[in-house]
Amino acid sequence: MNNGQYSPSGFSILPLVVKNLLIINLLFFVATIAFGNFYGIDLSKFLGLHYFESKQFYPHQLITYMFMHSNENFGHIFFNMFALWMFGSAIENHWGGKKFLVYYLITGIGAGLVQEAVYAVRIHQIASQLSPELVDMVKNEGLALLKQDMNYRGLLGNLNLLFNISTVGASGSVFGILLAFGMMFPDVRIYLYFLFPIKAKWFVIGYGVIELWLGIANRSGDNVAHFAHLGGMLFGIILMLLWRRREYNPYKKIRFRFPKRRRKYRIDTSYRPKTDEEYNAERAEYRKQVDAVLDKVAKSGYSSLSKEEKEFLFDTSNKKNW
Q1: Is there a single domain that holds both residue 225 and residue 162?
Q2: Is 269 inside a domain boundary?
Q3: Rounded (5°) CA angle 277-281-284
Q4: Residue 127 is inside which H or E element, if any?
Q5: Do 204 and 311 have their domain in common?
Q6: What's the total number of domains in the chain?
């Protein structure tokens, strides 16, 4: 890839992990529509991410939410999947499938955790203005009210939505991918709205600033999880810096090193070197055994030797000074 401009030529450059992620997201999207239309089941209640104190929260939602998208807004899934293909393909081709998948999942989970923290802050801000009894009432009765397409007014209504609405979408992971692209290919030109060229690093910085401003503004009617987008970027930059500085590989086996114990050696005081007389006696005895075997070979041939005698003769031929 050159540093002049970046514009994918088509779906012929579709790495394996990106392709499978596109397929999974589309299957979830189709299933959301089908279950809603034919069975009246809202999958986002089970697979979308809820506040951890909500009755609808389950731990698996930190993973499943990133494969869910709004079935009322086709642009939500379209632009997420387009960005996944456009920027994710380049990154997977550079990193490889395993590392890319780890990065995608961690940034998505990280975005979900940041969104949970934002929920907690906003709920605390509203709850501090209400009595504990009213807060408990919203916790216990608010979900049933929403199921009837009704809600409280004012602060109670806002609190009820924070407790029971779900967050869906791959945007957290997509923003993490966008961050990685900007760090890996900072001078590559991206065509904004397919018309205006801008370097990737400025595009990422600008997008991040806009998301931060929108998240802080928290305008009424804005149902976009801006801080989740920033969470994907935050976990992405942490992960990339970790990999760069420590050359860390997320799918290598972790090895624990323990200090080796020093071996204690004992000196055998019973050992003493042989005297010349002992050495010569042992050598003479060994020669007698060798001569006996050789005499047998001379008289009856090599085939007459037993297995032990053949091994003895072989060992003797490899010894020196005998």
Answers
A1: yes
A2: no
A3: 140
A4: helix 97-127
A5: no
A6: 2
Secondary structure element (H or E) that encloses residue 172, with its range: helix 171-184
Alpha-carbon distances of 7 from 4, 50, 104, rounded to whole Å: 10, 37, 22
In this structure, are 235 and 303 located in the same domain? no
Could you tell me if 43 and 147 lie in one domain?
yes
Nearest-angstrom CA–CA distance, 182 and 85: 15
pTM: 0.71
Q: Which domain holds residue 74?
A: 16-246
Residues 108 and 212 grouped into a single domain = yes
Question: Mind listing the pLDDT tens digit of every residue in the chain (322 residues)?
Answer: 444 455 444 344 789 999 999 999 999 999 999 999 999 999 999 999 999 999 899 999 999 999 999 988 899 999 999 999 989 999 999 999 999 999 999 999 999 999 999 999 999 999 999 999 999 999 999 988 988 989 999 999 999 999 999 999 999 999 999 999 999 999 988 877 667 788 988 988 888 888 888 877 777 666 688 889 999 999 999 999 999 887 645 555 545 455 556 665 565 556 567 777 777 788 788 788 878 877 787 777 777 778 787 777 777 776 655 5
Q: How many other CB atoms are found less than 10 A from the CB of residue 185?
A: 21
Q: Write phi, then psi, for 190 (nearest 5 degrees).
A: -105, 135
- Amino acid letter, residue 88: G
Do 150 and 282 fall within a single domain?
no
Half-sphere exposure (Cβ direction) of 129: Cα atoms closer than 13 Å: 9
**Do 300 and 226 fall within a single domain?**
no
Instruction: Kindly provide the b/e burial profile for residues 150-165, where b requires at least 16 CB atoms within 10 angstroms of the residue's own CB.
Output: eebeeebbbbbebbbb
Q: Give the whole-angstrom CA distance, residue 207 versus residue 232.
A: 13
Q: How many residues does the chain have?
A: 322
Residues 6+ apart with CB under 8 A from 311: none
Give the DSSP letter string of 185-235. Answer: STT-EEEETTTEEEEHHHHHHHHHHHHHHHHHH--TT----HHHHHHHHHH
